[in-house]
């Protein structure tokens, strides 16, 4: 098979934890053809998509990447395009999805650009209120303040477009910094933020559940460190093994059909104390951490899943 990875530069990858990297290694292990490029190297012409991309062979051992010279690669000539550019989800990212829309039906895009455009990772979770914490989305400082004052305990406020724990704050009624926090996060009423009750279960861990084509394949707990309440590994959270329990399966059963419908093949959901908080579709991670925890090779399962999905796609033509 022929794969094009649209991603961050190779020299910026954290090879010890990057899911894109091990997926590229798996494609190379199968003797598939692989190219890579950054989003700004895509272009369109006469209704067809192309990339200025480097052929690459990836290995777990150094040298990790063996690259060739830049080639013009047509979307029509590859089997799979992997959209693996990390957030932020800005207008540059959105425009990249427009270019990916030029891929023909014979080319599978993981994840499908229509879903990437439509579903914000925090806002989409609100579409499942039976498993989502109560949430106010507003840019009105007075409304947000009143909502927080009415909560019985602590509250979490965060940007609607944040990633990696950026801008996530904990506050409560009577906090004398509350006004300043709200003014700062909303840019004095110009930007929307989310406000939710603080889930005490986060102290036991923020669970990441990975799904391939709508089916759960693994999970891990990201346990906050003593110096930070956020369950993000780059701010000190540690990773621990955990089960996919009945509550997680209920959430996955709700999400699975929608993920399949919108072509969201590689997804990571965040679950705190049984509550769905995010549906990560832009560039989910966790494969290497789960591989180490459980002695598995999830990237192999992922490529198997992608091959099967593309085969079904071709049969439907």
Which helices and strands appear, and what pairs or packs with what?
Blueprint: E1 2-6, H1 19-29, E2 33-37, E3 42-45, E4 48-58, E5 65-67, E6 71-74, E7 80-83, H2 91-100, E8 108-110, H3 113-118, E9 136-138, H4 141-150, E10 155-159, E11 169-171, H5 178-185, E12 193-197, E13 206-212, E14 215-223, E15 238-241, H6 246-261, E16 266-272, E17 275-280, H7 287-294, H8 298-315
Parallel strand pairs: 1-2, 1-7, 7-8
Antiparallel strand pairs: 2-4, 3-4, 4-5, 4-6, 9-12, 10-11, 10-12, 13-14, 13-16, 14-15, 16-17
Helix pairs in contact: 1-8
Q: Would you write up a description of this structure?
A:
With 317 residues, the chain is an alpha+beta fold. It folds into 3 domains: 2-113, Rossmann fold, CATH 3.40.50; 134-198, Dna Ligase, domain 1; 201-280, ATP-grasp fold, B domain (D-amino Acid Aminotransferase, Chain A, domain 1), CATH 3.30.470. Helix content is 27%, strand content 28%. The protein has 8 helices and 17 strands. Strands 1, 2, 3, 4, 5, 6, 7 and 8 form an 8-stranded mixed beta sheet that branches. Strands 15-14-13-16-17 form a 5-stranded antiparallel beta sheet. α1 packs across α8 (298-315).
């Amino acid at each position: 098979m022929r794969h094009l990875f649209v991603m961050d530069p190779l020299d910026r990858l954290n090879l010890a934890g990057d899911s894109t990297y091990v997926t590229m290694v798996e494609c190379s292990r199968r003797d598939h053809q692989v190219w890579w490029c950054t989003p700004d190297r895509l272009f369109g012409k006469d209704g067809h998509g192309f990339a200025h991309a480097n052929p690459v062979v990836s290995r777990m051992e150094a040298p990790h990447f063996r690259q060739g010279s830049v080639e013009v690669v047509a979307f029509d000539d590859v089997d799979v395009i992997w959209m693996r550019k990390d957030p932020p989800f800005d207008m540059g990212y959105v425009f990249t999805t427009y270019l990916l829309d030029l891929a023909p039906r014979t080319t599978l895009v993981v994840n499908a650009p229509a879903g990437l455009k439509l579903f914000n990772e925090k806002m989409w979770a609100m579409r499942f209120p039976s498993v989502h914490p109560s949430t106010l989305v507003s840019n009105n400082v007075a409304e947000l303040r009143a909502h927080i004052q009415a909560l019985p305990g602590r509250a979490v406020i965060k940007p609607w477009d944040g990633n990696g724990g950026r801008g996530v704050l904990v506050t409560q009624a009577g906090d004398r910094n509350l006004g300043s926090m709200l003014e700062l996060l909303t840019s004095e009423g110009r930007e929307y933020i989310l406000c939710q009750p603080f889930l005490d279960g986060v102290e036991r861990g923020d669970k990441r559940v990975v799904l391939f084509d709508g089916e759960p394949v693994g999970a891990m707990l990201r346990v906050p460190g003593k110096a930070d309440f956020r369950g993000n590994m780059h701010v000190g959270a540690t990773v621990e093994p955990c089960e996919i329990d009945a509550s997680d399966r209920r959430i996955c059963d709700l999400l699975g059909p929608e993920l399949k419908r919108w072509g969201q093949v590689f997804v990571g959901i965040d679950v705190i104390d049984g509550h769905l908080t995010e549906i990560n579709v832009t560039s989910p991670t966790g494969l290497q951490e789960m591989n180490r925890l459980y002695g598995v090779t999830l990237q192999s399962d992922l490529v198997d899943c992608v091959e099967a999905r593309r085969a079904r796609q071709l049969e439907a033509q």
